[in-house]
Structures are given as structure tokens and as C-alpha cells.
Amino acid sequence: MNMILPLRYLLWIAVIDVAWFAPGLAVEPSTLWKPHVIESSWDDLTEGLETPVQWQQKRRILKKRFLELIRDQFKPERVPLELKIHESVVVDQKYTRRLISYQVEIDERAHAYLGIPLELPSKAAAIVALHGTFAEGAQRAAGLVDNPDKAYLDHLCRRGYVVIAPEHFVSGHRLPQEGAYDTEAFYKKHPDWTAVGKSTWEHSIAIDVLTELKEVDPQRIGALGHSLGGQGAIFLAAYDERIKVAACNCSAPPFRHNPEVLSWARDRWYSYIKHARPGMLRGELPPIDFHEIMALIAPRAFLDVSAINDGNSEVQRQRVLMLMSVMKIYQLSKVPENFAFFIHGRGHSVSHESRQLLYGWMDTHLLPLAATATRRVTQP
Fold first, then answer.
1. How many CB atoms are located within 10 Å of the residue 371 CB?
2. Burial category of 346 from C-beta neighbours within 10 Å (exposed 0-12, middle 13-18, buried 19 and up)
3. pTM for the whole thing?
4. CA-CA to 268 of 20 to 30 Å: which in 115, 336, 350, 361?
5. What region, left, alpha or beta, does residue 269 occupy, with left being phi > 0 and alpha being psi -120 to 50 degrees?
6. Are the beta carbons of 269 and 170 closer than 8 angstroms?
7. Is 333 within 8 Å of 296 (Cβ atoms)?
8. Hey, what domains does the chain have and what are their CATH numbers?
9. What percent of the chain has pLDDT above 90?
10. Cα–Cα distance, 148 to 129 (Å, whole number)
């Protein structure tokens, strides 16, 4: 059926075409499609903030709350590293992989894999790669066992980074007698501290190891991880400003709007913040949540990758709103390009596209501009 449009409709379509495809031409603004303001409970992050100075004032309050949450005041004194190399191998003529250990407490040593590319500029960018909840997580990060999707050290060393993959303190060489990731013995030793505080503090010591290497540029250090390692990257970047860029994949859900929030303060196995359990049982949440912890990373670069079908989908939808509030802080800080998030449907995984985003984010923010610049084809 042929249809002839009246002239007034054709003129209206022409105006729309001009508006969309001829930028710069003055077009009368429309009031028909005014966007609705999206409001959520996560807006408390930016409530009352209008200037960067106001944000810095609030940031100091949030940093204090974060340190209180992980009970940083109960950490032990720093001790000399006393670095030891236990084994060293060259991988595919690309990089040297070392198994190292270093002192974290006067009676405790941490182990890690350290990868150093064979061909490096005078000073290279470095990354702290944090593994998930797996008994031999550092070995997996080195590509020696289990899922090669999670072999971050191997992948990143081949891209030219110096990488340290530290063992979580209840795995690998320090596997508790009760089993992997059981924190009972830890809380007997440090009843006032937290597992999150302990792991974050140890990851900060891993930065100390990197900064002592002649190959590393201490101004270009990043952190990334998946699952437990993903939230570890968030906590580390919020805790230690030597981390210039952070990226997390499928990290834990926040406290609010989370029907399983008590998992953060279990009375068995791995208890992140044990001291919060009595309050949670009374329906009280910690005085700081993930959007506020993430905002502590600003203005430094941060990427959040997560799956809508990783656990409770409604909680993950809340994560989208939460991340939108974090973006407001980056906009207020005049660096919106330093924040990004990606939501996918591949569940609790580190799929190909997720890895490309994580590693590309590191490249963008840690490498010289020429490393990621595009070029026109040279004419013959």
C-alpha cells in the first residue's frame, strides 16, 4: 500500500534529520522528552556535594570509617621484608617467574609469585594480581594449576608488566589446619583485627616488594583481581594510594539491599569483618558501604566488571545504581574518564571480553600514550 505523507510531516522529518545529522546548527530544544532524574538510595554518597572541596572534606570522613571497618588500628608494626627467592624459572623466553617469600609479621612470612619480563624499559609498570577463593590461588594466578582464564601473572607478564601475585593469608603455604580460608586461628591470634584488614595490609606489603625492585616505576602500580581478589583490589586501592589504577571482576555484593549480608560476618569459615556480626544480627549495617569505599579511589582510575547473573540478580541490579553514584564523584572530581563499569551475563567468570577490559584498563592508565594510540595506514 502506497502512502503519501502530508507536507507538514515531511518538513517535520527534515527538521529532525537536521537536528540529528547536522551538529552545530541551532535547533529549538524540545520539551517533550525531558529525561527523568534517576534517584536511588545510593545517592547519599553525593548528597549535599557541589564542589571538589566539599568532596575532599567528606572523603576524609569516609576514609576514617573505612579504616575503622577493617580495624586498621589493630594491625601489627611493619617488619623488615627479608625477601627470599625459593625458585626461579624462565617462561617461554618471555619472563622470569620467581617464587618468593617475605616477612609480614615477626613470626609470619607471606609467599608470592613474582614475574619480571626479560625485555623491559628502564622502569616498568607493575601490577598486584589478587586471586579468588582457591586453596592454591597464587599458583593459579601464575598459570600453574586449574583455570588458565585466571592466570593473571602469566597474561600480564607477556604484556610487559612486572607482576606480583601474593597468596591470601589463609591459602597456599599458610593453609590453616582447619582448612583453606578458615579464619578461626587468625582471630585467635588477632581478636580485634579483621580478615579484610589483614589481607589488605599484606597486599600493601606486596607493594613494598614491588617498589624495592630496580625494574619497577613506583609511580605506575596497579591492582586487579577476581572474586575475593576483586574486592581485595577495591580495598587495596582505597587503602594505599600508591595504587594508581585498579580493576575488579565479579567482586562481592555490597551491604545494603543484600539478603545475604550476614555472610560478611560469618561465625564460621571465612569471616571478613567478624566484629560487625552482633550489629548485623540487630539489623544494623556498617557505617560505610561499597559505593563509598570505591569513591575513595577517586580521582585514580577504577574499573568495575560484574555479572547480572552472579548470585542474586536483584542485588546486581542495585550494583548498577551504586556504580552510577560512584561516577558522580568522578564527574565532580573532573576525571570522568578515570571510571568505568561493565555488566555482562556470563556469571562468576573471567571470560575473554572481561580479561580484555581488565588488561586494557591497565594499559590505558599505566602505559605511555603511544602504547595504546591508533595510527592511520601508511600509504605505499
1. 12
2. middle
3. 0.91
4. 350
5. left
6. no
7. no
8. 44-366 (3.40.50.1820)
9. 89
10. 14
